[in-house]
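Support reply, case 0932

Customer input (verbatim):
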Amino acid sequence: MIRYNYYDLAMINNFRGKNKEAFDQILLYTEYKDSVIHDQGLLEIARIETQSMKEKKDHEIELLNKNNEVKVLQLWYVACGLLLVIILSAFIFRSLRITRQQKLIIEKEQKEILDSIHYAYKIQQSLLTSEKYIDKQLKKLNSYK
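Our regenerated output:
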């Protein structure tokens, strides 16, 4: 507004024949016009810089989001891997426990069978005539011949 006011005053003073005042006001008009153009240039530069910074920040945000997505995906892979290891470990420990129980049962049954065999052997030994007695009797029989 000031710039246009100086221009209008310069035209009025020029029309009145006051060339000195008109010239001074044209100088002020030019100074304000240059100032406005300079300010507009600075505003445009600031706008471009702001836009550039915004684009950089948007790009950084996009990269961070992608990085976060990769980290989340990696976390899921690790979690799934751990879950798989836990499940496999549970199956292995279960199998080991069952195998131990079966081994204990087999050992117990084997002991019972061996005890039974030893008992039967002792019974047989007590019922059967001893070898010494048989040899002794055979010698007696051979001596009678």
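We compared this against your earlier run and they match. Two observations from our side: Residues 19-127 form the longest helix (109 residues). The CA atoms of residues 41 and 47 lie 10 Å apart. Please reopen the case if you see a mismatch on your end.
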